[in-house]
Prior knowledge:
Elements: H1 2-27, H2 32-56, H3 70-95, E1 101-103, H4 107-147, H5 151-173, H6 180-204, H7 208-225, E2 230-232, H8 247-266
Antiparallel strand pairs: 1-2
Amino acid sequence: MHKKRICIFIFGVISLSCLGAWIANGIDGENPAFQMSGILLMSVSPLLMTIIVKTVYREGWQDIGLRFGISKNKPWYLFSCLLPVMLISYVIGLSFFSSSVSLSESFVSDLPQIFLRSGGLFFAFLVTSIGEELGWRGYLESALARINKSVLLNHLIVGFVWFTWHLPLILLAGSFQVSFLELLMILFSTLGLAVVYGQLRILSETVWTCVILHACSNALIIGFGSSNSLITENESQYLISLSSFSVAVVSFWALMGLSMVVFSRTRVKPRKVS
């Protein structure tokens, strides 16, 4: 029964993703209203399918992780806010080892504006992050935990579904010009992200740490990227950049995911997703 519900959830989010991508890029790709509507539909599709599945099958909501648990999870909320800063610092650090990647001369003076812009973007991404995370880490992680005891495998399954969910928008927005290598790197990056988010969900016992991490990551990466502070030559964007398909980003999430798995196994007893 649980497998059937999981399949319905996955089929639903992928279908809504295709519909959202078509609305955003297929009806009138230059119309901002259609673009925003399509992207919004995609973003809330995991939440919509969670509501549908739980309503139809009369499931409770206690396993979604809706309790904030701020008093006992302050370190994890702080970690969620700092991790995107660590990613950007990691990429900037690697840039010093490459002659084809450099920081703009105005980088330091642009920092206040970058963080101000990112702060504004955070609240916009908070809505879409809630729509995604209540589905991915709220419903799907907990549903998989009922039928499979391998925590790491569950993370990777969520990551693969997450990647597939992104595909319609990636392909349509790029007019199918995305290379196979770029797709493969985005897959690896998403799998690493899924492990980090999944472990954070388990360790904090709440989905809200994942929501904060998701919103902060999108806001800071876009805020920093739009400032053009990191100057990268064309051939170097695959190695050191903030793009999802860069080796730097993929390696960061892989290392962070591995570190969190090791931490949960050696330092603390992993808590049950609830």
